[in-house]
Amino acid sequence: LRKHGGVDGVASGLGTDTQVGVSGSAEDIERRREAFGSNTYRKPPTKGFFHFVVEAFKDLTIMILLGCAALSLGFGIKEHGLKDGWYDGGSIFVAVFLVIAVSAVSNHRQDRQFDKLSKVSNNIQVDVVRGGRRQQISIFDIVVGDIVCLKIGDQVPADGLFIDGHSLQIDESSMTGESDHVEVNGNQNPFLLSGTKVADGYARMLVTSVGMNTTWGQMMCQISHDTNDETPLQARLNKLTSSIGKVGLAVAFLVLVVLLVRYFTGHTTDENGNREFNGSKTKSDDIINAVVGIVAAAVTIVVVAIPEGLPLAVTLTLAYSMKRMMADQAMVRKLSACETMGSATTICTDKTGTLTLNRMKVRKFWLGQESMEEGASSISPFVVDLIHQGVALNTTGSVYRASPGTEYEFSGSPTEKAILSWAVVELKMDMEKTKKCYAVLQVEAFNSQKKRSGVLIGRNDDD
Question: One GO cellular component from the entry (predicted)?
Answer without folding.
Answer: plasma membrane
